[in-house]
Predict the 3D structure of the following.
Amino acid sequence: MLSRWIMRGFGGNCDARRKLIGIFTMAKTMRSMQITELGRPAEMRELPVPAPGDREVLLRILAVGANFADLLIAKGAYQVKPEPPFALGMEACGIVDRVGAGVENLSVGQRVVAFGSHGALSEFACYPESSCTAIPDSMAARHAACFQIAYGTSHVALEHRARLKSGERLLVLGAAGGVGRTAIEIGRLMGAEVIAAARGAEKLAIAEQAGAQHLLDTATADIRVEVKRLGGADVVYDPVGGDLFKAALRAANPDGRLIPVGFASGEIPNIPANILLVKNLTVIGFFWGGYFNYKPSIPAGSMQKLFAWYEDGQLKPHICAVFEFEKANRAFEKLGNRTATGRIVIDVGEANS
């Protein structure tokens, strides 16, 4: 509330109001939802507010997007394995509160999205400047908090890795989930014919709202048969794995490309090389977060295009649930029991800022 009063009181003098925000919000302690033991729910703890290092910014966190990878990190089952205690939260929207030495492109008072392997579920968190991107003025904090991983994953996977072409047929598995729905939206914007596969009428309705032209219920349909009946898949986008991947592999057209982006089923499929050989198929490895380590220009460029689509009204993030900071564990429970039909957001600060 204080920061809003300052922003109004100093009108258009951006430098003055940003400096005052930094002075008046210089808290010494903060609340943080910490994993103190792998496999156990997070606990609210009070900790010192961290100071930004060189080329880092300190963010006052507004909202955090919950991701399936958070569940794996909490169990110690993800490729990134922080040692407890640590806070969950891979993506967040926040306001720059302080900047470290060498920061060139961000300043106090800016709203940004930030990406990291963990740490966002705190009232304050430090991030490298390179992991932060300023967001459009029109973008709500809740939308921003759940935007970059889901939309970034789908866009870079389909455009940069699979080279999806207009007129091709795209099969999206787990189509009503957080990333699946974004793959439908982006696939349509890229000119693809989209087949959505999800379980049950409610989830298929969400996929249809996102723009899918064909709907397959994985509870009743033989995916291999039905996709081939529709002409086969040129590109398969798979956040599920398991038996659905195996069916999609056999429904892919010659020269088809398959992109595993996650294993929500809990089963990492073995890929029969003989089928790849006979049908000239390509299975494409893809990890969106990895680009930040060796080619950050890829996600940065992607995000600028995605923000432009958002401002044009062509992307509409679907938030199915919002939880208060103190109830963050309930957000991850909902994510884990696979009842989410869209993105889940946790409010940490003033998410309407």
